[in-house]
Amino acid sequence: MWELKTDDTRIFGWVPRRDGFICCFGDHANEVKLKDKYGAYMARTKLVRDLLDLDDPKFVSGDYEDVISNKA
Q1: How high does pLDDT run on average in the chain?
Q2: What integer is the mean pLDDT of 4-14?
Q3: Are the CB atoms for 1 and 12 separated by under 8 Å?
Q4: Which residues lie below 8 Å from residue 22, measured CB to CB, with a gap of 6+?
Q5: Exposed e or buried b per residue across 14-51, where buried means at least 16 C-beta atoms within 10 angstroms of its C-beta
Q6: What span, in angstroms and rounded, lies between the C-alpha atoms of 12 and 26?
Q7: So where are the chain's domains?
Q8: Measuring CA to CA, how many Å separate 34 from each of 29, 30, 31, 44, 71?
Q9: Does position 72 have pLDDT exceeding 70, yes or no?
Q10: CB under 8 Å to 3, separation ≥6 — which residues?
Q11: Which helix (H) or strand (E) holds 72?
Q12: pLDDT surpasses 70 at 23
């Protein structure tokens, strides 16, 4: 699972291929932090991904450099 962050928002999803991101859930940062919703959103995102009829592998694993190009 991956989480995109801004000051005010948390977006949970996964990377099905390099430089691609599928957003599954989003919420206000304060809600996620104050109510400790990280685990719940990650579990829900994994469930959605697992239920989709996608070819394996359904996601790219690895570090940041493995999933995002450094295009300038």
Answers
A1: 93
A2: 96
A3: yes
A4: 13, 14, 15, 16, 49
A5: bbbeeeeebebbeeeeeebeeeebeeebbeebbeebee
A6: 6
A7: 2-54
A8: 8, 6, 5, 18, 35
A9: no
A10: 10, 11, 12, 38, 42
A11: none
A12: yes
The DSSP letter of residue 16 is S
Instruction: Please report which helix (H) or strand (E) contains residue 9, including its range.
Output: strand 9-14
Tokens representing residue 65 in the block: 């450099």
What is 18-67 written as a DSSP string? TT--EEEEEEEHHHHHHTT-HHHHHHHHHHHHHHS--PSS-S--S-HHHH
Tokens standing for residue 22: 């599928």
C-alpha to C-alpha distance for 48 and 40, rounded to whole angstroms: 12
